[in-house]
């Protein structure tokens, strides 16, 4: 149902402009990546040239986070290259070829230039926690999107998913719970507290 709703809105925008930038936003583990992937698959089947660009490619390198004593807070707004990400989104609006980084969760590192956005790409689906976020400099992203959609997931479900994310990486339940409660859940609460309104809210 979510995919159908978004696909209809995207098609309407594609009829009016050469490239459409869609921001898919939500707290960690809300399902942003899954929704972006499913929507991209649907649009491609419908002959719409679509690329997914995750915000997570702009994680600061672990060496930098260690030097700043910020590694335990990885995933918080200040642990990303926010200005670099904003520059990328502005570049994507120019209908030119762009290369973007991606984040490899198994390596826990970003990989530069891993995502190609050809000049003839019609739709760019950008997914991330802080795309509609009322803190500087993230707030400058809000006017850049052609369409925004927020995944609204209850905190108890987010907590279970965040713990499961660490369990899937072979951490013990105690460590997984500690990691989720020490960093991921506070980040999720911050996303919800400082959320800017989106065009569509998906429950």
Polypeptide structure, described:
It is a single chain. The chain is built from 6 helices and 7 strands; from the N terminus they run αβαβααββββααβ. It is α/β, with parallel strands linked by helices. Strands 2-5-1-6-7 form a 5-stranded parallel sheet. Strands 3-4 form a two-stranded antiparallel ribbon. Helix 1 (2-14) packs across helix 2 (32-45) and helix 5 packs across helix 6 (173-193).
Residue share in helix:
25-40%
Secondary-structure-derived class? alpha/beta
Unreliable sequence segments = none
- How far apart, in Å, are the first and last alpha carbons? 11 Å
Biggest sheet architecture: 5 strands, parallel
> What proportion of the residues form beta strands (DSSP E)?
15-25%
- Order of strands across the biggest sheet? 2-5-1-6-7
Shape: globular
Radius of gyration: 17 Å
Could you give the order of the helices and strands? HEHEHHEEEEHHE
Counting DSSP E segments of at least 2 residues, the number of strands comes to 7
Number of helices: 6
The chain-level mean pLDDT equals: 93
């Amino acid at each position: 149902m979510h995919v159908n709703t978004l696909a209809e809105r995207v098609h309407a925008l594609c009829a009016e402009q050469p490239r459409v930038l869609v921001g898919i936003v939500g707290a960690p583990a809300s399902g942003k990546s899954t929704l972006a992937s499913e929507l991209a698959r649907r649009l491609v089947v419908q002959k719409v040239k679509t690329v997914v660009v995750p915000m997570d490619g702009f994680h600061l390198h672990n060496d930098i986070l260690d030097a700043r004593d910020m590694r335990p807070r990885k995933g918080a707004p200040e642990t990303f290259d926010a200005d670099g990400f904003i520059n990328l989104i502005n570049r994507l609006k120019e209908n030119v070829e762009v290369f973007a980084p991606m984040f490899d969760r198994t390596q826990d590192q970003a990989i530069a230039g891993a995502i190609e956005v050809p000049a003839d790409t019609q739709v760019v689906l950008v997914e991330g926690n802080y795309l509609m976020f009322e803190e500087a400099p993230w707030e400058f992203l809000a006017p850049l999107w052609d369409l925004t959609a927020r995944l609204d997931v209850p905190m108890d479900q987010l907590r279970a998913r965040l713990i499961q994310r660490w369990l899937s990486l072979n951490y013990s339940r105690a460590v997984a719970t500690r990691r989720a409660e020490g960093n991921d859940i506070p980040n999720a609460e911050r996303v919800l507290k400082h959320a800017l309104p989106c065009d569509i809210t998906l429950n």
